[in-house]
């Protein structure tokens, strides 16, 4: 992994491996139900902007499972968008994809001059900000595309997680298929530190990428500056209907690598 490699280059190179990771147990039994619970039971007649949509995994769920009236998926990686579009039927009218860098989107008006959205989803977008200004820019783009009273939902790297455990208990944690490495050489992160993620697929292929560590106060500063009126952090939960053994997932959930966020404009 080249630490200073741009996200577009990283995700173009791991598009297939990252797409495979959507079928991993932590995605299916924890990540997905937690995010969809934030969205609510139904998106009927609602329009959704899915930023950092990757290969369209959640975009399709919003349309097909949650019954959103329209979904617009945006990602920086052309390879990811190519995969997303390959999974669609010709002339699909309720979903559209576009290759675009969220950090370069206009904050003065919504994307493509469309009307504002009821929901903006941006799974794992915010932790890609390389500095506080870019983090603020991401939040401003989200706010500018969201209706007043609209909902922003995201998943992100958990700033509260004890990263030292990946040094002391790495082998035990590999069963959860996420390994994190703090690249500053110590176990306590500071603002802007780089964290490497290795997500291990069932076929042993690995999706490797890096994100930036930001504290809860820094995230909340950006939300406040961008015009969000309220927000809450939500711990990940195991789907009670999953049939999974809660004891198996106990270590993962007690000090989880992922956290969810809901904010209202």
List the helices and strands and how they pair.
Layout: H1 7-20, H2 25-39, E1 47-51, H3 57-64, E2 70-75, H4 78-86, E3 95-99, E4 117-121, H5 132-144, E5 146-157, H6 165-168, H7 170-173, E6 178-182, E7 194-200, E8 206-212, H8 216-226, E9 230-234, H9 250-254, E10 258-264
Parallel strand pairs: 1-2, 1-4, 2-3, 4-5
Antiparallel strand pairs: 5-10, 6-7, 7-8, 9-10
Helix pairs in contact: 1-4, 5-8
Q: Identify the CATH class.
A: Alpha Beta
The string of secondary-structure elements, in order, is HHEHEHEEHEHHEEEHEHE
The N- to C-terminal Cα distance equals 37 Å
The CATH H-level superfamily is Vaccinia Virus protein VP39
> What percentage of amino acids are in beta strands?
15-25%
Helix share bin: 25-40%
Q: Give the overall average pLDDT.
A: 92
User: What would the principal axes of the Cα set say about the shape?
Assistant: globular
What count of helical segments does DSSP give?
9
Determine Rg (CA atoms, Å). 18 Å
Give an overview in words.
There is one protein chain. This protein is 31% helix and 24% strand. It has a single domain, classed as 3-Layer(aba) Sandwich (Rossmann fold). It has 265 residues and is of the alpha/beta class.
């Amino acid at each position: 992994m080249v630490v200073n490699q741009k996200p577009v280059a990283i995700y173009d190179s791991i598009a297939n491996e990252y797409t495979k990771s959507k079928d991993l147990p932590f995605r299916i039994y924890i990540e997905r139900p937690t995010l969809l619970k934030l969205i609510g039971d139904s998106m009927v007649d609602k329009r959704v902007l899915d930023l950092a949509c990757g290969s369209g995994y959640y975009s399709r769920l919003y349309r097909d499972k949650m019954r959103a009236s329209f979904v617009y998926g945006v990602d920086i990686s052309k390879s990811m968008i190519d995969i997303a579009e390959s999974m669609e039927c010709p002339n699909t009218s309720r979903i559209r994809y576009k290759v675009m860098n969220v950090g370069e989107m206009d904050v003065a008006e919504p994307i493509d001059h469309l009307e504002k959205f009821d929901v903006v989803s941006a799974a794992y977008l915010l932790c890609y900000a390389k500095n506080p200004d870019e983090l603020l820019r991401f939040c401003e783009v989200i706010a500018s595309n969201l209706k007043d009273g609209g909902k922003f939902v995201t998943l992100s790297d958990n700033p509260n997680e004890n990263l030292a455990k990946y040094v002391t208990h790495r082998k035990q944690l590999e069963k959860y298929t996420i390994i994190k490495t703090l690249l500053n050489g110590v176990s306590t992160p500071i603002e802007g530190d780089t964290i490497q993620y290795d997500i291990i697929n069932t076929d042993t292929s690995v999706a490797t990428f890096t994100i930036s560590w930001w504290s809860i106060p820094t995230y909340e500063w950006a939300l406040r500056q961008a015009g969000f009126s309220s927000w809450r952090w939500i711990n990940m939960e195991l789907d009670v209907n999953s049939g999974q053994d809660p004891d198996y997932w106990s270590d993962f959930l007690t000090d989880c690598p992922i956290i969810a966020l809901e904010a209202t404009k």
